[in-house]
Amino acid sequence: MPTKTARALSGLAFAAALTGAPSLATETKPAPSHAMPAAPAPALAEDPLSVKGTVLESMDAGAYTYMKLKTGDGEVWAAVAKTTVKTGTDVTITGISRMDGFESKTLGRTFDRIWFGALAGDAGAMAARHAAASTAPAEGVVKVEKAAGADGRTVAEVWADRAALKGKPVAVRGKVVKFNAGIMGTNWIHLRDGSGSPAAKDNDLTVTTDATAKVGDVVTASGAVTVDKDFGAGYAYAVILEGAKIAK
Q1: Closest residue by Cα to residue 171 from 152, 155, 158, 188
Q2: Residue 229: which CATH number?
Q3: Exposed e or buried b per residue across 17-49, where buried means at least 16 C-beta atoms within 10 angstroms of its C-beta
Q4: Is 123 exposed, middle or buried (0-12, 13-18, 19+ CB in 10 A)?
Q5: How far is the C-alpha of 53 from the C-alpha of 55, rounded, in Å?
Q6: How are beta strands 152-153 and 109-119 bridged, if at all?
Q7: Is the pTM of the predicted complex or chain greater than 0.85?
């Protein structure tokens, strides 16, 4: 489970996560005229471990299903990995992370408070999705020249030196082998440059960013190294670049 700070993830995000520096909630609030009415927040002194309620309405957006729930503490919003859920169904959302003032650009709505987690009974869904995102498809031989400059590192070098690089800026040039948009308020890129090996699991670097890219693009990701990041719900990384700038 994330800490309270990780749960708050406002100013997010697995950020977020889903989101970090600048954190998964890199999205900004729209003008008040575009904001949805704020849903009452649970009257709880401490963040709960789960949210239980009856589905009043639901909608799919990107990789998520958003649900308005009627709980004992009022109406709240929650989001889980895309699923099918019927109005009137009683659900429990586990492994939750709270996000305040979260804007979904896909929906064009801002949530005063929303809980991201996994649907109980389908607890492995988000973890499975994370695992799939972390295992990029076979790309054949990838060979990309190391980024220039003092901050330039290969993917394998970031993995090997992650403890010493914690909090420090790096620039990693690589091929985009996986791109997932709009997960916990940010975009996720997997980079490979031909360094490292699948056996050692040091050949793939995860990057979160507000930029977009296509599989096959060769880009340079610049950002600070974060180590041992756990966003909850199966999103945990030994090393990751959060809120990176992307140059093509």
Answers
A1: 152
A2: 2.40.50.140
A3: bbbbebbbbbbeeeeeeeeeeebebbeeeebee
A4: middle
A5: 7
A6: unpaired
A7: no
Residue appearing with tokens 């699948």: 198
CB within 8 A of 189, min separation 6: which ones?
176, 178, 179, 206, 207, 208, 209, 213, 219, 221, 246
Distinct helix (H) and strand (E) counts, the chain: 4, 12
Residues 6+ apart with CB under 8 A from 22: 11, 242, 243
Percent helix / strand / coil, the chain, rounded to 5:
10, 45, 45
Tokens of 58: 């639901």
Instruction: Mark whether 84 and 193 lie in a shared domain.
Output: no
Rounded Cα–Cα distance for residues 172 and 193 (Å): 9
The model's pLDDT over 126-139, given as tens digits with 9 standing for 90+, comes to 444 444 444 444 45
Rounded alpha-carbon distances, angstroms, from residue 201 to 86, 136, 145, 173, 206? 40, 12, 20, 18, 12
CB 234 within 8 A of CB 131: yes
Residue 30: CATH number of its domain? 2.40.50
Locate 242 and state its tokens. Answer: 């959060």
The tokens 């400059």 sit on which residue?
Answer: 149
Q: How far apart are CA 105 and CA 146, in angstroms?
A: 34
Please write the tens of the pLDDT for every residue from 193-224: 999 998 999 999 999 999 999 989 999 999 99
Largest distance between two CA atoms of the chain? 57
Question: Could you say which DSSP state residue 123 is in?
Answer: T
- Considering only 18-27, 71-80, 173-182, which range has the smallest mean pLDDT? 18-27
Same domain? For 99 and 177 the reply is no
